[in-house]
Write a structure and sequence with these properties.
Layout: E1 14-16, H1 17-24, H2 28-36, E2 43-44, E3 50-53, H3 54-64
Antiparallel strand pairs: 1-3, 2-3
């Protein structure tokens, strides 16, 4: 039986709101407004914690012409 191939990617699959603030040089409130307005899909992992998938971040950036810093 052939062995299973494992793909290891060291890049994060999810970003925190803090990471997005640094990436976009925006205030936390602005990122939360994007999430609350459902412009940026996010996964809630606690009462005040969100994670955003890298794929959604890239899609949001391309759709809104935001360049990462």
């Amino acid at each position: 039986m052939p062995s299973a191939e494992v793909i290891v990617d060291h890049a994060p699959a999810w970003l925190t709101v803090s990471q997005l603030c640094r990436r976009w040089q925006l205030d936390r409130k602005t990122v939360y407004k994007f999430i609350d307005a459902e412009l940026l899909p996010a996964w809630r992992v606690g009462p005040h914690l969100y994670r955003v998938s890298v794929a959604d971040v890239l899609h949001f950036e391309s759709r809104n012409r935001i360049l990462p810093k």
